[in-house]
Amino acid sequence: MQLLRHLIALIALLAITVQPAIAQSVLRDAETEALLDEMAAPLVEAAGLVPGNVDIVLINDPSINAFVAGGQVVYIHSGLINAADNADEVQGVIAHELGHITGGHVIRYGEGFSKSANISILSLILAAGAAVAGAPEAAAGVLAAGQQAALGKFLAFTRVQESSADAAGAEYLSKAGISGRGSLAFFKKLQNQEFRYGYSQNDEATFGRTHPLSGDRIATLRESYIIDPAWEKPVDPEIQRRFLRVKAKLAGFLSRPADTLRIYNDSMTGIPARYARAYAHHKDARIDKALSEVNTLLAGAPDDPYFLELKGQVLLESGRPQEALESLRRATDLSGSNSLIAGMFGHALIATEDPAHFQEAENVLKAAVSRDRQNPFAWFQLGQIYAAQGDMPRARLASAEQQIIRRQYAEAMMSAGFAEAGLPTGSPDWLRAQDIGLQARSELERDKKRR
What is the CA radius of gyration of the chain? Predict the structure, then answer.
């Protein structure tokens, strides 16, 4: 009964809590996002979805997991990238999550809960009848059995959804011409993790699980994968090369420097190792060593926008913004003015504290947010430029944009109100301030109702 109450509370709170929690832990990196989008594109097309309408979002979480939470968004934990050895392992996970999207599983979540709730209500009625008849012990037994049956019904529902997503994922991999070897390899890693933590693999243990047993999933999927024409197809070498770069980059950025330097030690001279060490040295404030690694990378690929971005970042964050400008300007140009890279370039221009750079910073940042409005850092920098120019209404509007992205609804409503009061009535910026104010007010009212 206690477990079911917790489960009901979790389901009720899921829609409320999942998006704010996600928003606080999203990792954004231009190179990683470009790679994940390219890895997902053939699978999205195979699923009958439009690639531009499906987002792959990286979450800063060391656990091995991925999920969907409504809409056409696949969330991948950084721990999953760290655990994968090959790009096709991650593609297998993406294919599975797309199966949840096309199956409408998040939308149908309440369907499974309502069925289990019906059993729970029936058990309450029967228990009440037993109690009235003077059999309190029987009433307690009926109630406990009913709660257990309700929980089992709900978990069985989620296991059916997982099996359905497995089958859909296998279909999408096949249509995309991607081998299922990576998918199986990743399931085996999950199975090994279950063994490590002592999770039983027998049929009796299935009752209390949200997912089918990994061994059963491997056996079922293997039958589908081995007869597929793509089974023997190797991983795309270019995708794999970029995947190993991104994996090392994330390790260098997220792990403790000592751990990174132990895994990617000085005897390793490849690009991924140098990439990881550059981030580790930068985090450890060993700027000369970080720049040495980056300069070695640039010696072999002088026009790589991501290496240039890293050099600019190291210089900027070590208090040398003027020196960072050349690398970040080139990185912005070579990346096609990627919003995240342009945002850093705009920041460097402002950090020089030279008014001669402010107009360029405004142009760069306005272009950045026009391409990607979900970039709170760029909005913050743009607000600083407007404030320095004495344009407080637009500075407030930029603050409102940043705050609405971060789900700071009370602050966003206040900033939007100030902006609206100072902007020309009917102008595009005035209308945008109105929109943000209405959105923030609506979200605040929704939060009140939830409480």
Answer: 26
